[in-house]
Every structure is written in C-alpha cells, then in structure tokens.
Amino acid sequence: MATVWKATDERGELFEGRDRKSGESRFTATRADLVFGSNSVLRALAEVYASQDAQQKLVTDFVAAWTKVMNLDRFDL
C-alpha cells in the first residue's frame, strides 16, 4: 500500500491519505468511505439497500433471511 491513512479530527471520522514515500497529501475520506471503498461487495449491497426506492426490498430480504436462519435449527419441520 502506497498510502498511509491518519485521522484528521478529534472524533476519528475524517482521514487524510498521504503518500508513504513523499509524505504528500493525496486523498481525504470519511470512515465510511474507507470501509466501503475497501470492500466492493459491501459497497454494492449498501448502495442497493440505501436507494430511495429500496425500503420494501430491504424488508422482504431481511424477513427472508431471518426466516431462513430461524428455521435452520428446526429439525421437526
């Protein structure tokens, strides 16, 4: 990795990325930017469920996943 990230605020929410060799400032990012930027699958899922028209999809998918998990231990079904 050619970039070193360090918090720039007291709460640790804003970060500055500096080049390891030159020390030059290259990027600024929030904590969420760093999490979602490093995991493409998580970012894609977050974008799907965060869209304005995704409320029903979130509810439907959550209920389906919850039901599946709860029924995995039910051997009497």
TrEMBL record:
| InterPro entries (alphabetical) | Catalase_peroxidase, Haem_peroxidase_sf
Q: Which GO terms describe its cellular component?
A: cytosol
EC class: oxidoreductase
> What GO molecular function terms would the record report?
catalase activity; heme binding; metal ion binding
UniProt KW keywords: Heme, Iron, Metal-binding, Oxidoreductase, Peroxidase
UniProt superkingdom? Bacteria
Entries under Gene3D superfamilies matching the protein: 1.10.520.10, Peroxidase, domain 2 (1.10.420.10)
Q: What is this protein called?
A: Catalase-peroxidase
From the broadest rank down, the organism's phylogenetic lineage runs:
Bacteria, Pseudomonadati, Pseudomonadota, Gammaproteobacteria, Enterobacterales
